[in-house]
Amino acid sequence: MKKKLRSTADRSQTGKIMSSLGMSQMSIQDLKKVDGQAEAKVVLRRVVTKAAGSISSSAQWGQLWQNLCRLQELSFSAVSKEMILEEVCRALLHCGSFGLAESFFAGMDGVQLSPQSSEKLVLAAARDLFYTSKSPSSVQVDQAKRCLGIVKHSPAIQHELDTIAAVKQLPSLGVEIAPSQLRNMANKMDIIEVVLERHPDPARNIQRIIHLAESLGLDSPEERQQVKLFVAHSALQSGGLVNLPVLRQKVLHPVVLCAVTHEGEDDGCVLAAVVVDLLED
Predict the structure, then answer these.
(1) How far apart are alpha carbons 232 and 244 in whole angstroms?
(2) Can you tell me the distance from the alpha carbon of 28 to that of 73, in angstroms, rounded to the nearest whole number?
(3) Please, which residues have CB within 8 angstroms of residue 6's CB and are 6 or more apart in sequence?
(4) What is the 3-class SS of 226-240, one letter each residue?
(5) Global pTM?
(6) pLDDT tens column, 209-253
(7) From CA 225, how far away is CA 247, in angstroms rounded?
(8) Local structure of residue 172 (DSSP, 8 states)
(9) Nearest to 203 by CA among 245, 156, 159, 146
(10) Distance of alpha carbon 227 from its chain centroid, rounded?
(11) How far is CA 248 from the centre of its chain?
């Protein structure tokens, strides 16, 4: 008799929770029949996404967590509490509630996400924010950076931060590329070439340009050499012979100079124009 009463009470509580979560269309039996993690994740994500749309306070997020955990205990055994926490964290990131997300990522009621799961969630959310933004100065770019700060630093996190820094630096070098455009660029070296085309004095800013290239992921020895060659070539093509001391000092590679004729302004004598190549390290 007690068991029957307990079962009735559990069904009643499950029904109330499902109703509060907007799951009225599902029966308790439907919930219990959910089979396998893949199907369970689909149902759970749908529930969390729908519930998140009407949440406006941290207390409500806490209540959502409690309701989902109780539902799991009563009738939704196909999901784990780690899965519930993952979906709630995903929803918080999607809503831009980064401060509260930090609390959930730190763990709830003894439940914690693995470092790998946490990083995966944060990277996905940050990339979505960053690569859908239309301008380096858009709010989404700053939100992406904030999002990346939620979890422990890692090479993958640093790579995304470097990319954000590179895009935000570009306007000061005379180029503005929307993050949404960057995603579809097959060759990031094209950005360096555009910067050099528009920059009046690349030799004096070679370290900035090299740092920009590295931030864009152009950091192999071969790519660094190519960037330096582009800078040297651009500086000398623009007639910047006066910049040669700067170039020699900052490129940090041997430079081969071949003279060709150039008419001098004062006496018509032959001055050196330049063909540049970078030798091996």
Answers:
(1) 9
(2) 13
(3) none
(4) HHHHHHHHHHHHCCC
(5) 0.77
(6) 888 999 998 888 888 888 877 877 776 666 554 445 544 444 434
(7) 14
(8) G
(9) 245
(10) 24
(11) 36
